[in-house]
Amino acid sequence: MSQSVNFNKWLVLLAGFLGWMGAGVQISLFPLIGRTMLTDLFSSVSDPIVREKQVAMWFSWFVTSFLLGAAFGGWVFGILGDRLGRKTALSLSVLCYSLGTLSSYFFSLPDVLLCLRFIACMGVGGTWPNAVALVTEAWQGASKTWISGWLGAAANFGFVLLGMIAYFVSVTVDGWRWIILVASTPVFLSGFIFLLVPESASWKSKQKNFSLTAESIWKQPWLSRTILGIALGAVPTVGTAVSAAWLIPWADSVSQAKGKEPKGDPRVKAWTQITRSSGAIVGSLFGGWLASMVGRRLSYFAISLLALLASEYIFLFLTPDHPWFSTWVFIVGVVGVTYFGWLPLYLPELFSTAVRATGIGVAFNFGRIVAGFFALGSTLLVSWFGGDYAKIGAITSLVFGLGLVIILFAPDTSKVSKENAV
Q1: pTM of the model
Q2: What domains are defined for the chain?
Q3: Which of 115, 266, 291, 292 is deepest in the core (most CB within 10 A)?
Q4: What does the DSSP assignment read for 278-291?
């Protein structure tokens, strides 16, 4: 019996890891191919300056679509996780992002692709809360830092995987749709999760007696924690999706401008993603450990400070053709994504089992709505700076400074109270 239980725990961890890794593939897909795709879609614009400005503008819109779609999906699939079960909602989330991405293979209109990106990212947003809740509840008593580290790192394994594929098989203006098919392959994972992964025993034992509803997170005693969770999740989301995301198109544009080939070296953007995401894996594994060693609040403060300094340095003092650029891209990946090893540890501690998936989904993904406004604001920066990616990145990176303030209002959940325990 114990062997069966132990096997099920590992099966749950595998499902959560692969589900969030597949979501990482979706998240990294557009930063990797976005500029190339949009350059192809706007190839009829003859003036290269006007075209680059148009590409940068639409790049911001696609980032916004991702953020808002993930926020909405986190809410919807988080509720489903509390109502139908963690593994059912996780399976549906993976199916959503896989089919949403696959559908984009067949269209060429930017506005249609924008809508499909929104749908795919609903699944991305829904994957996080259900994967975290399912794994956390299956591994009660295990090292929280170990679990949170691997969950936080999972998406970055997806980033590296897609980057490696694009490095060896170039994504070009003349050939970029093939990688959409690659990013759609987690559709098979959805069936594996639904058919073979066991449901959370904690959820099953308590769901019949739930007196709380999804709306409870907007009422006390959970309201203040929900708002806090949104704020804490918004800082790294803006930092990675709105600020650090500019590193890839920036490197691609410099490669094109200075390369011997007219279209530049398509491996540059892939290598930038690989370098950043490799650092992110290290940072994710380190985040939970750091939080347990020095405390939840001090660790978040330290991460925010280091992310601010590293991001400002690379955007203000380096260029993609600088010999130290890749090293600092790696460093930005380490410190900027350490948050995502911290969040799987901290957010579940804020909510009880009854509203955990909803609370995590809203706290983490509604931060994306805040990030969405930042992304919309970056469209103004595109106009002001004429598509200068370095200046845009330097300004949007200032969001890490907000983390230094927000964490001062956070409770220390190192010892979760009995009534809020799993």
Answers
A1: 0.74
A2: 7-195+214-420 (1.20.1250.20)
A3: 291
A4: HHHHHHHHHHHHHH
